[in-house]
């Protein structure tokens, strides 16, 4: 939700919840497990911003809470994943300057803390870490043709345990939507995720992902889309990596302006330098889409 306040001030607040089985591409290795644990993600954000002529200033905060269910073992029983439960709290500061109504370059800095529920993990490591980041980018708003933002910078997480190396590297973000003709939207999305780990001696990894999708109104009540995505995982604590490729196609049949039935099929492959990390996965999904 976004609120326009007095004297060029505005405020925003948002939240979300997602539950799903942990992805097969997760860097966490659970020996003798017959299924991936359930992953719960809670998100919340709030902030204020103000326009001072061509200058826009923003102060915002984000909280991301992740918890994991137990993993089922092949010999029977379960393995608790409580030492993986974390809360990431961030404060972000952004300053942008309007060169024109269509372009606004910006710089942004963030500082935060990743706190694990348990002070020590199952291997005796203190994994809570301080988070720092800086990036520069540009916001674009060319009426109904091109809208969104793209940025690049650096992110770092420094664990409390001195035996664990600092995770740091390139941070990418993009959320652009281009409409070359009426009824067609081409979208570019990209992100960098800092992934923790409970493997002995390993801090975690940086996962860079990007996707390009094309959506088209095939009929008044039918929308189709295709997507191609790529991901690259860089492990810290050992010189290893994963490559993830994904393709997807979907159709949405609109029952009315606000609700539709969506069918989607996707295929994903992963190839890595670590043993037993390669996989191929096909998904089929049927659900509801709502919009307002």
Structure commentary:
This protein has 292 residues and is mainly beta. The chain has a single domain (2-290), classed as Porin, CATH 2.40.160. Helices cover 0% and strands 68% of the residues. The chain is built from no helices and 17 strands. It has strands spanning 2-4, 9-21, 38-52, 55-68, 71-72, 78-79, 86-97, 103-116, 129-142, 146-159, 167-178, 184-196, 204-219, 222-236, 241-254, 259-272, 279-290. The protein has a 15-stranded antiparallel sheet with strand order 1-2-3-4-7-8-9-10-11-12-13-14-15-16-17, with no helix packed on it. Strands 5-6 form a two-stranded antiparallel sheet. It is globular and about 55 Å long.
The CATH level-2 architecture is identified as: Beta Barrel
**Count of helical stretches:** 0
**Fraction in helix:** under 10%
Computed CA radius of gyration, to the nearest angstrom: 21 Å
Task: Order the strands across the largest sheet as they lie in space.
Answer: 1-2-3-4-7-8-9-10-11-12-13-14-15-16-17
Alpha-carbon distance between the termini?
13 Å
Domain count, please report it. 1
Chain-averaged pLDDT:
92
SSE layout and pairings?
Blueprint: E1 2-4, E2 9-21, E3 38-52, E4 55-68, E5 71-72, E6 78-79, E7 86-97, E8 103-116, E9 129-142, E10 146-159, E11 167-178, E12 184-196, E13 204-219, E14 222-236, E15 241-254, E16 259-272, E17 279-290
Antiparallel strand pairs: 1-2, 2-3, 3-4, 4-7, 5-6, 7-8, 8-9, 9-10, 10-11, 11-12, 12-13, 13-14, 14-15, 15-16, 16-17
Which terms would index this structure?
292 residues; mainly beta; 15-stranded antiparallel sheet; two-stranded antiparallel ribbon; 17 strands; 68% strand
């Amino acid at each position: 939700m976004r609120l326009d306040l007095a004297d060029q001030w505005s405020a925003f607040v948002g939240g979300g919840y997602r539950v799903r089985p942990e992805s097969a591409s997760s860097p966490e290795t659970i020996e003798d497990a017959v299924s991936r644990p359930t992953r719960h993600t809670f998100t919340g954000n709030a902030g204020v911003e103000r326009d001072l002529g061509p200058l826009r200033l923003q102060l915002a905060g984000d909280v991301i809470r992740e918890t994991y269910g137990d993993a089922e073992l092949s010999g029977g029983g379960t393995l608790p994943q409580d030492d993986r439960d974390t809360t990431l709290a961030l404060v972000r500061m952004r300053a942008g300057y309007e060169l024109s109504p269509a372009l606004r370059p910006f710089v942004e800095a963030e500082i935060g803390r990743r706190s694990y529920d348990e002070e020590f993990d199952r291997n005796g490591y203190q994994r809570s870490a301080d988070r720092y980041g800086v990036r520069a980018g540009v916001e674009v708003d060319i009426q109904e043709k091109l809208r969104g933002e793209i940025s690049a910078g650096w992110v770092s997480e420094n664990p409390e345990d001195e035996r664990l190396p600092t995770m740091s590297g390139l941070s990418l973000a993009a959320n652009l939507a281009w409409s070359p003709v009426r009824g067609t939207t081409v979208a570019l999305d990209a992100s960098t995720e800092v992934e923790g780990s409970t493997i002995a001696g390993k801090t975690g990894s940086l996962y860079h992902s990007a996707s390009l999708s094309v959506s088209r109104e095939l009929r008044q009540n039918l929308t189709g889309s295709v997507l191609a995505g790529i991901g690259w995982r860089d492990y810290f604590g050992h010189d290893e990596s994963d490559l993830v490729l994904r393709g997807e196609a979907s159709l949405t049949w609109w029952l009315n302006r606000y609700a539709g039935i969506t069918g989607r099929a996707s295929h994903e492959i992963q190839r890595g330098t670590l043993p037993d990390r390669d996989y191929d996965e096909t998904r089929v999904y049927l659900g509801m889409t709502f919009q307002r």
